[in-house]
Amino acid sequence: MTESTENTENTQNTENTRSTEKDRQVSGVEIDLRDVVKRYPGQKSAAVESLSLTVPAGELVMFIGPSGCGKTTSLKMINRLIEPTSGTITIGGEDVRSRDADELRRTIGYVIQGGSLFPHMTVADNIAVVPKLLKWSKQKIADRTEELLDLVGLEPGRYRDRYPRELSGGQQQRVGVARGLAADPPVVLMDEPFGAVDPITRQRLQDEMLGIQRELGKTIVCVTHDIDEAIKLGDRILIFSEGARIEQYDTPENVLAAPANDFVADFVGAGSTLKQLSLSRVSELEMGSWTTARLGDDSSDAVRRAEAAGHDCVVVLDERNRPVSWPWLRNLRRQDRIDVPRRDELVTLDRRATLNDALDTMLSSSHAAAIVTGDRDQYVGVVDFVSVTNHIRGQEAAAQQAVAQEARAEEARAEDAS
Asked: In terms of C-beta density within 10 A (0-12 exposed, 13-18 middle, 19 or more buried), how is residue 13 classed?
């Protein structure tokens, strides 16, 4: 592959991922809760008291608040795992209590911590649970299983016939997400979906969730206890206090910049200015081009092109343009052909990852940089510390300029008034 071809591919990948996000179609529907109450026998106060809110179609809304505030109860009333005492919940304009509860749940995706897979079933059978209940044909189920495994980053041929005990925690959670999406529901409910995995796996699962949502446009309601996760994933954040009282329901930007009250300010915590770095995405950075090669390519050719470009390593892509390794030239010089690596060893960044994620990834990488991917894990480019710090400086300069402009405008208004 020539250098010009390589650069053209990189440009096309970036343009394709941008156009995919801009042209993303919404497949979700609106959820509306009106005066919803949940009272348990023997309790003086309601677990949920007069909750009213609207979740727009195609948005990802994060429910967050202190333990026992009613966020999980509120989530479970949407699919009637918990029956409301009073009030109305509609999905796509249809009252959830107008349908049989089991039938309703088959049309709503549900993902919980750890994936909650059936241990005696294979990965494929776990994903097929709801489609089978809906009487889908075997071929349709098989096709959907292949599609979903690919979507969540698991190679169908490698994972389809495995059992949950043969998977890592992150892989089990990916299968849980695939099962929640199996029947192509317009609404997906998630209850602490990434709470049981290590921080690196958690970041990757969050990035994959952003990629899936970018592609599918579902209406997703997700319960979390982590404000950083809420800021990263949410189109909107709903902050509850006791009794599922809404303290603020707004975009992450507005929650951080303008907390509605002291409760929200205390809940967001100190360092909200630093947390605003989590609002900046890797896609906003300037991507560096890098020498790439394909599995099976001539190693000496890849080394020659990398040396000419001043690079000390090569990004290796598979047949679907997904990065699979980032070997140093000293290792490539020992090979005639570029070998198939262990894909799980490579840590990448989704282009919707935050700058905090980018810094964490680069600090743990021997390359002091990170490979960026887009839809279906396709290669987009490389970011390094320089691009991150340049972006932060640019943001600071823009903020200072905005403050200065506002000050000048205020002076002008004062002069006009006098």
From this structure: buried
